[in-house]
Amino acid sequence: MALALPETARGAGTHAAAYEALSGVFDPELDEPITDLGFVRSLDVAGDSVTVHLRLPTSFCSPNFAYLMASDAKDALTALPWSRHVVVELDDHHDSDLINAGLAADAGYRGTFRHEAEQDLDELRETFRRKAHTAAMERCLTALLRADPDREVEALGEVTLGDLPDDERTAALRRRRAALGLPDVPTAPVLVSHDGTTYAVADVPLALRRARSTRVSIDGNAHFCRGLLRTRYPGSEQDQTDRPEGAEPADALDRPPSPTTFIPLSQLKEHLS
Amino acid sequence: MYSKDGESYFIVDAHVALWDARPENQRNIHGKQFIDCFYDYHRNLSPEGTVWSYEDYLYQGGRRLMKDLFEDGYVDHAVFQPAFLGEFYKNGFGQTEEASALAQAHPDKLTYNHNFDPRNGEAGLDQLRADAERFGLRGVKLYTAEWHGESRGWRLDDPWAYRYFEACRELGITNIHIHKGPTIRPLDRDAFDVADVDHVATDFTDLNFVVEHCGLPRLEDFCWIATQEPNVHAGLAVAMPFIHTRPRYFAQIIGELLYWVGEDRIQFSSDYALWTPKWLIERFVDFQIPEDLTEYAPITTAQKKKILGLNAAKMYDIDVPAELRLPDADEPATGPRGADDTAERAADTSTLAGV
After folding, report:
1. Confidence category of residue B347, pLDDT binned at 50, 70, 90
2. Of the residues A84, A146, A240, B69, which has the fewest C-beta atoms closer than 10 A?
3. Cβ pair B252:A216 closer than 8 A
4. Secondary structure of chain A in the HEC alphabet?
5. Residue in chain A nearest B153 by alpha carbon
């Protein structure tokens, strides 16, 4: 039989476990964990009760995405073996009352939004899984082009996973491919649509251009949302991690001086209390 | 008019507002949430020294608007694009009486566009006809995320919206400015989806559709639709201020728009009073696409002149001094306009089907 831990140490362990569970919840649109985005406003664990408050960059962020993140957070925390009472609340949103009531009653998406919902949000999630893959693919191929400006754009259709450098960019692409069920072998072509279809040589440049517009859009939006959160909730920058894709010099000015010693605010608060 | 380095730029600010978000006009908490969201946009993207106090931001008034746009802001002509937001504000957000009176007093400087909501049915159609006559409407501003009773959004391809577009056609309202907002029914789909623009642009080829903030945060979907529809234009509301803190993002937005939509169909706007035009125009004239973004050609002075005013002037028949005019680019009406090898294939839009 294991030794009984002192109450404080056990509390810290469950807090860390709850935070870890939340780090598996993604903003489907920005394709990042809500913990990295600073969307977790507070996390309180008392015995088997977990209370989480979420915050978003604006009151008018899409309610469907807001609901997805909040309900995914509740699911992730409920799945912890020791949790019994889980409360997830979304703060300061135009639909906070509706969403929080739906979450408390476990009403589901359709039960929460009633006449505004028709089927479910699976298609929406899939749309953004595809966009995340498209952007990751473009980052890898454009990196090749920039490294070797003489490379023919049309020839990019022949690039395979094995041709890519072993770096974080490639790893990110492989994760996105796995999410779509695309093959993860060195011979697999990189420039493919969401279902793995390759392009005719003549269509390769346009396919890359289209993927580029997706990447520009996602990276720009991800940084704008982070910036708005920092403006709306001063101090929230301490809860955000860097996003290298699409980063700009001004981001450094917005950041706390020493990112290596960063501690999520939600944990810090508990240490202080 | 703005002049620098021997070049002169005719300026049309294609999207401005005169709003009232003061507490006495707020109908409920959402009125406060809405203006607070705007104020965060303003604070987040504005350079130091151009940030307004919250009180000033709630309501700017006509006198300040005239000064910010025409005395300090280099603007030659501006177009009101009012949002109604009747569920959030007692007297609406955009101030119809004050703005239209200003436009009437300064017809050389201001054009007043109004709005409609197809969920108002027949009564709304009658109102549109009356508004067209009263304001001499050339354009309308449509906000598809407007709340209306139980409904929190509508689509441009709803059957009732078609009735309104048919009326626009009869009434000579040719310039349809569209703002995609975040809530729309059903919530199952992406609320910023611009697919309905595609349908309506195909069915009303004699109307111009200006998609504000160029579809952001769905730039890719917007570019894809706009490149296939010769009557879809990009409005730079909200996109412009990225030029300050996110110049690389801004460069890529412009690079994408020049490629997919072309230099003749992009319109500058400050989105006043979200931001003021002065610094945006100064920065844009000085702006260049960073050299390391090798996938984009540098932006030319002629392209800047078109974006800053000539394109919107053409759409609204605003008189431009002869020496400031420029001819249209030798570009196809659809398909990518970019100067790289993909442009050669643009004449055949069927190639788009393969991508």
Report:
1. very low
2. A84
3. yes
4. CCCCCCHHHHHHHHHHHHHHHHCCCEECCCCEEHHHHCCEEEEEEECCEEEEEECCCCCCCCHHHHHHHHHHHHHHHHCCCCCCEEEEEECCCCCHHHHHHHHHCCCHHHHHHHHHCCCCCHHHHHHHHHHHHHHHHHHHHHHHHHHCCCCCHHHHHHCEHHHCCCCHHHHHHHHHHHHHCCCCCCCCECCCCCCCCCCCHHHHHHHHHHHHHHHHHHHHHHHHHHHHHHHHCCCHHHHCCCCCCCCCHHHHHHCCCCHHHCCCHHHHHHHHC
5. A116
Q: Residue A51 — φ and ψ, nearest 5°? A: -125, 125
Give kind and range of the element (H or E) at residue B111. strand B110-112
Closest Cα of chain A to B27: distance in Å?
14
Name the superfamily (CATH) of residues A7-120: Fe-S cluster assembly (FSCA) (3.30.300.130)
Q: Provide the CA B289 distance to its chain's centre, in angstroms.
A: 22
- The number of residues in chain A equals 273
- Verify whether the Cβ–Cβ distance A216 to B37 is below 8 Å: no
ipTM of the complex: 0.92
> What is d(CA A216, CA A210) in angstroms, rounded to the nearest whole number?
10
Q: How far is CA B353 from CA A147, A199, A210, in A?
A: 30, 12, 12
Distances, alpha carbon A252 to alpha carbons A8, A242, A243, B204, in Å: 36, 9, 11, 47
Neighbours of B320 (CB within 10 A): 18
Residue A214 pLDDT greater than 60, yes or no: yes
Give the chain B residue whose CA is nearest to the CA of A210.
B220
**Taking CB atoms and an 8 Å limit, are B341 and A153 in contact across chains?**
yes
The 10s digit of each residue's pLDDT in B160-210 is 999 999 999 999 999 999 998 665 556 777 767 888 999 999 999 999 999
Nearest CB to A231: which of B40, B256, B294?
A: B40
**pTM (two decimals):** 0.92
List the CATH code of the domain at B14-354: 3.20.20.140
